[in-house]
Amino acid sequence: MQITLRYPPAKLSPNKRLHWAARAQIVAKYRRECWALTRVVLAQHFENLSRTLNPRPLPVKITFHPPDKRRRDRDNMIAAFKAGADGVADAIGVDDADWSPTYEVGEPATCGWVIVQIGEQP
Q1: If pLDDT is split at 50, 70 and 90, which confidence band does 122 have?
Q2: Which class for 13: exposed (0-12), middle (13-18), buried (19 or more C-beta within 10 A)?
Q3: Per-residue 3-state assignment (H helix, E strand, C coil) for the chain
């Protein structure tokens, strides 16, 4: 299963210094957005995903397509996407602690995307 999500908002970068309440609002909004988009994919392709996602750890490939060509620190991209990963985990019913994630940085995309592939990779 493949899910295409919006690139994390810049304010979720660990390098941003936001008040905790302002950050919490952005985290909650991005997490809900990722949950909703994942549920749309599930509704289109799967009836009950939790039965098909038995393997633990669950293989998950996350590919970042940044919105521009500026150099980015991979650790910061992963940290900024934490709320998104939590939203996907909530939607599929598999805690992200049970994931075996791999991360890649792909070519820049106009708006920026994060592609999450869940399950066995071809």
Answers
A1: very low
A2: middle
A3: CEEEEECCCHHHCCCCCCCHHHHHHHHHHHHHHHHHHHHHHHHHHCCCHHHHCCCCCEEEEEEEECCCCCCCCHHHHHHHCHHHHHHHHHHHCCCHHHEEEEEEECCCCCCCEEEEEECCCC
Q: Are the C-beta atoms of 115 and 6 separated by less than 8 Å? A: no
Give the integer Cα–Cα distance in Å for 117 and 2. 4
What is the overall mean pLDDT for the chain? 90
Q: What distance in Å separates the CA atoms of residue 31 and residue 39, rounded to the nearest whole number?
A: 12
Say if residues 97 and 43 touch (Cβ distance below 8 Å): no
Cβ(8)–Cβ(30) below 8 Å = yes
Please list, in sequence order, all residues whose beta carbon lies within 8 angstroms of the beta carbon of residue 108, skipping any fewer than 6 positions away: 65, 66, 67, 68, 69
